[in-house]
Write a structure and sequence with these properties.
Length: 137
């Protein structure tokens, strides 16, 4: 499994906001600290605010913070917020229809790893990604 760039960026930004939750952060600070493309970042942050994962406030003390507890934000919530499906119904070989009655060549071998990935995405929280200050995100 491979995350899209948007998913990677969203996880990195949300992890940063969690790690440094004692203050709010501007998009410019996130851009500089995480070395992410500025325009891409502003568009992504707008979506994360709309979906309720990030809070934005204006003014001198304003900026971006997590809108929810990091314990309540799961990886699948992040994927959903940025419009990335869990891909549980997609065939690993790209066939339009692939199920038990019409399996592809890898259908049976892919079933168990797919279940494990889905479990990881639905049970892993943002807080659990940050075990210590040394975690690279």
């Amino acid at each position: 499994m491979h995350f899209s760039k948007t998913t990677e960026y969203a996880i990195r930004v949300l992890s940063y906001l969690h790690r440094y939750s004692d203050t709010s952060h501007s998009v410019n600070v996130l851009h500089q600290e995480l070395n992410l493309p500025y325009k891409y970042l502003t568009k992504m942050m707008t979506e994360l605010v709309k979906k309720g994962l990030v809070s934005a406030s204006r003014g001198r003390e304003g900026g971006l913070t997590l809108a929810k507890s990091a314990d309540s934000i799961r990886l699948c919530d992040i994927l959903e917020a940025i419009g990335e499906p869990l891909e549980s119904e997609h065939c690993i070989l790209g066939f339009e229809k692939c199920d038990a009655s019409n399996p592809c060549a890898l259908h049976d071998q892919w079933s168990r790893p797919k279940e494990l990935i889905e479990t990881m995405l639905t049970t892993t929280t943002l807080a659990s990604l940050i075990n210590n200050k040394e975690t690279k995100l």
